[in-house]
Amino acid sequence: MDFVTNAKKFGVRSLLLQGLTFLSVLTSAFMIWKGLSLFTNSESPVVVVLSGSMEPAYYRGDILFLNNGYSPIEVGEVVVYKLKDKPIPIVHRVLKVHTQRETGEQFLLTKGDNNNADDRGLYNPGQLWIQRDEIIGRVKGFVPYAGMGTIWMNDYPQLKLGLLGTLCVLSLFSND
Amino acid sequence: MYNFLQRLSGVTSFAMSTLMALVVVIALTTPFIPSSPTFDMSLHNVQTTTGRAMDPYDRMSRKAEYARLTFDLDADLSTMFNWNTKLLFAYVTVDYTTPGFETNRAVIWDRIIKNKRQAKLKLRKHHNKYALRNYPLTFEDVEGANLTLHINPVPYLGIMYDKPVVSIPFTIPRPVKPAAGSA
C-alpha cells in the first residue's frame, strides 16, 4: 500500500532512478572485486577463514587478504588452496616444497598448525602433493573477526535473505 | 532538524572511517618496530636410515630413506613480542639441491610461541618432529644442505612477513648399510 502511494507521489521516473542507483552500487562493488582479483592474480583475493585448523594464528571468521604473484611458493608461507573437484578452499601452512629444475613445477605439501598430521588425508585419493595451479593465493594481510557476518550468513541462510530483502526495500524508499 | 537515525548513521560512519584509518596505520607500521632476538643453533649429527617412518597415504614410504637430525637450539625471541604480535611461529627448515630438483625445502621442526615466557627456546639434542625424506626415494646426489631457523610473526592485525635468521650448512649422508650400489 505504502509502496503504491509512494510510486504515485514520486512518479515512475524517480522509481527508475532509484533502481539505477541500486544497480550502480551493485556493479561498482562487483568492479572493485574483479579489479582486486586482476591486481592480485587471484580468483578470490579476500577469503574468510571457515575452520579452526590454523588456530591459534587464524580463527573462524577472520579475513585474509591474498596475493597470487608468479613467484614460487616458499616453505612456511600460509597459502589458500582449492583442490580439484572440492568446493571448499583451505588455509594451511606449506610444510614441504620440491621445485623441478627443468619445468619449474612445484610439488607442495601443506599442514594446518592446529592439526597433528599433514594434509595428505585431505587431498584427493592417491594425491600426495598439491601443485601451483591449485593455490588461490598466499596470505599477505589479516584482519580479525571482520568476516563473522559471512559465517553467520552461511550458518543461517534466512539471515542472508532477510538482509537482502531489507536492503532492497530501504533502497526503494530512501529519497536521496 | 536531524532525526535519531541520521545522527546514528553519522556517528557510525565516522567511527568506521577512523577505525579503517587506524587499521591501515597499524598494519603499515608494525613490520618496522625494532627487535633484537638472539639465536644459536648447532647440529650434532645426521643419520640416514630406511624403513623408519611410515606415511599411510604413500605406498612407497616403506622403501624411502629418512634422515634423522640431532640439533641444539638456543634462542631468545622475547624482544620480538610487541603490541601487535599475536604469536611467533618458529620453524626449522632443511634445504638442498639435487640434479632433478632446483630447490627442495622441508620443515623439520616447528613451535607456536604464544607469549614472552615461551619465547626462550632451549633445545638439547632435539630430533626432527617431521620425517625428512627426499622427493625420490633416496638422498643420492643431494648437495648444499642447509639447516635454517625462521621466525614468522603473526600479528593481531596487519601484514604477514617472515624473518630468516640463522643458517648452518651440512651434508646428508647415505645409509650406513650398503643397500644398493656404493655410497
Description:
The complex is a heterodimer of chains A (176) and B (183). With 176 residues, chain A is an alpha+beta fold. Chain A is built from three helices and six strands; from the N terminus they run αββββββαα. Chain B has one helix and eight strands. Chain B has a four-stranded antiparallel beta sheet with strand order 4-3-6-8, with no helix packed on it. In chain B, a hairpin with a 3-residue loop joins β3 (85-97) and β4. The longest helix of chain B has 26 residues, at 4-29. The radius of gyration of chain B is 24 Å and the shape is elongated. Chain B starts with a helix and ends in a 13-residue tail after the last strand. Chain B: This is Signal peptidase complex subunit. Chain B: It comes from Coemansia aciculifera.
Question: Key terms for this structure?
Answer:
heterodimer; A: 176 residues; alpha+beta; Umud Fragment, subunit A; 2 domains; six-stranded antiparallel sheet; 3 helices; 36% helix; elongated; B: 183 residues; mainly beta; Immunoglobulin-like; four-stranded antiparallel sheet; three-stranded antiparallel sheet; 14% helix; disordered C terminus; Signal peptidase complex subunit (chain B); EC 3.4.21.89 (chain A)
Summed up, what is this model?
The complex is a heterodimer of chains A (176) and B (183). With 176 residues, chain A is an alpha+beta fold.
Helix share bin of chain A:
25-40%
Strand order of the largest sheet of chain A: 1-2-6-3-4-5
Number of helical elements of chain A? 3
The radius of gyration of chain B is 24 Å
Sequence stretches where pLDDT stays below 50 over 5 or more residues of chain A:
none
Query: Greatest contact pair?
Result: A-B, 30 and 35 residues
Q: N-to-C SSE series of chain B?
A: HEEEEEEEE
Count the beta strands of chain A.
6
Helix content of chain B: 10-25%
Name of the CATH first level of the largest domain in chain A = Mainly Beta
Assembly type of the chains comes to: heterodimer
Average pLDDT figure of chain A = 87
Query: Structural class per helix/strand content of chain A?
Result: alpha+beta
Q: Which class of the largest domain in chain B in CATH terms?
A: Mainly Beta
Protein name (chain B): Signal peptidase complex subunit
GO molecular function (chain A): serine-type endopeptidase activity; signal peptidase activity
Protein name (chain A): Signal peptidase complex catalytic subunit SEC11
Subcellular location (chain A): Endoplasmic reticulum membrane
